Amino acid sequence: MPKQLYALFGGTFDPIHNGHLLPVMALAKEVGLTQVNLLPNHIPPHKQQPDTTPIQRVAMLKLAIEGNPLFTIDMRELNRDKPSYTIDTLEEWRKEHGMDVSLAFIIGQDSLLSLPSWQRWRELLNYCHLLVCRRPGFTAQTESPELKEWIVQHQTQDIALLHQKPHGHLYLAHTPLEDISATEIRQQIREQKDYHTLLPEKVWQYIQQNQLYI
Ligand SMILES: Nc1ncnc2c1ncn2[C@@H]1O[C@H](COP(=O)(O)OP(=O)(O)OP(=O)(O)O)[C@@H](O)[C@H]1O
Ligand SMILES: O=C(O)c1ccc[n+]([C@@H]2O[C@H](COP(=O)([O-])O)[C@@H](O)[C@H]2O)c1
User: Fold this and answer.
1) Does pLDDT of 1 surpass 70?
2) What is the ipTM of this complex?
3) 11 lines ligand 1 (CB under 6 A)
4) Is-above-0.95 flag for pTM?
């Protein structure tokens, strides 16, 4: 029985969509995750404030994961009134769970490329592994020499290692490509286009009922 690998999946989720859910469900199978904690941020460090309130974003998360035991929600960033730096969250998580259990933080490939602009980014692997989902339009090929070198230093393809070691590795997953973004969904809504295949039906209904993003 491999050691449990805890997983956090951070995002703005404005709104949550199938480009979040389908790759992460595939990742869970690929790597052997039994639970993924969705971590909605409060003040995204690198983007505009969300169009919707935290309450609305969490309501959509709850509807998206209804009946899917893989997912739970971690509210800690919403309870902090400052930019949601991942390093702060990981430090707090480790204070609660200790340094011995294995923890993964899940990101998409676009986030991997932006990593050198994250707060104390080189320290992230002192607290977690990073699991990277594929995303159309992005690869792990980077122009940044420092990121390139860092990827070579930390990358592993050994899934067992992710369970055995508590933190320290980067894993580039083989997850399916889903060409969906929250930006595109918000745009489709403004243009009154049909977007209901891009997210779970119940999230679509919630957006319609509450007239979000118009
Ligand atoms: N289609 C996708 N495929 C793989 N990863 C994704 C996809 N969409 C989002 N992600 C990843 O999910 C995490 C949270 O993303 P976020 O909530 O910002 O969604 P987004 O669609 O990128 O939003 P926006 O379009 O508003 O920038 C990020 O690490 C991002 O890389
Ligand atoms: O810590 C940082 O500096 C940092 C910079 C950009 C993004 N993040 C986190 O990365 C996750 C995905 O971010 P985003 O902007 O794509 O929704 C989310 O949990 C953010 O809080 C974190």
Assistant:
1) no
2) 0.99
3) yes
4) yes
Q: Which residues line ligand 2 (CB under 6 A)?
A: 10-12, 39, 41, 44-47, 84-87, 111, 118-119
CB 40 within 8 A of CB 5: no
Between the CA of 20 and the centroid of ligand 2 the distance, in Å, is: 14
Q: Is the pLDDT of residue 71 over 70?
A: yes
Separation between Cα atoms, residue 136 and residue 109, nearest integer Å: 9
Quick one: CA dihedral 88, 39, 136, 26, positive or negative? positive
Q: What's the CA gap between 126 and 85, in Å, rounded?
A: 15
102-117 confidence digits (pLDDT tens): 999 999 999 999 999 9
The CA distance from 88 to 23, in Å, is 26
pLDDT of 85 reads: 97
What is the Å distance from ligand 2's center to 41 Cα? 8
Q: Which CATH architecture has domain 5-179?
A: 3-Layer(aba) Sandwich (3.40)
Q: Which among 27, 49, 110 is the best mutation to test ligand 1's pocket, defined by most ligand atoms within 8 Å of the CB?
A: 110
Q: Report the separation in Å between the CA atom of 20 and the middle of ligand 1, taken as the mean of its atom positions.
A: 6
Cα gap 11→35, rounded to integer Å: 17
Q: Residue 2 pLDDT > 70, yes or no? A: no
